[in-house]
Design a protein that fits this description.
Blueprint (H helix, E strand, L loop, with lengths): L1 H19 L10 H23 L5 H11 L22 H13 L9 H12 L5
Helix pairs in contact: 4-5
Keywords: Signal
Protein name: Rap1a immunity protein domain-containing protein
Length: 130
């Protein structure tokens, strides 16, 4: 049984690796890429804010947070710490469409990673109102 599992594992890894390898020659920012970027930012930043709001953070983190952002936790917007805030009530499709349209009119600098270009575009379109 162990030999069969080892063989299956080896075959799965050897077949899956090329399928999941990133194509670095494609620097296109697709709607799917934008959706994934937004979902990742919302999930991770939301988790950080939840952790800060829980009161379980260390004194160092509490002091750093107060120094940088003040006393209030920005719990209303999960991406606040990333420097952008999506409009309340906006659909994911409309946000992605707005970002895609803006990117069509944005010149991407040569050798600039697409994640940086996308991040800067999102921050310019959806700044947080402090």
């Amino acid at each position: 049984m162990k030999k069969t599992m080892t063989l299956v594992s080896i075959l799965a890894v050897s077949v899956a690796s090329p399928v999941f390898a990133e194509d670095n020659s494609n620097n296109e920012i697709t709607p799917e890429y934008i959706a994934g970027f937004l979902a990742g930012a919302s999930l991770t930043d939301g988790a950080i804010i939840d952790n800060l709001s829980s009161g379980n953070e260390s004194e160092f983190i509490q002091r750093a947070y107060r120094t940088r952002l003040g006393e209030e936790h920005p719990a209303a917007q999960p991406t606040y710490l990333a420097g952008f805030c999506l409009p309340e009530g906006a659909t994911e499709d409309s946000v992605i469409s707005n970002i895609s349209n803006e990117l069509k009119h944005t010149t991407q600098p040569a050798n600039s990673p697409r994640d940086i270009t996308l991040y800067n575009t999102i921050k310019s379109l959806y700044p947080c109102n402090d």
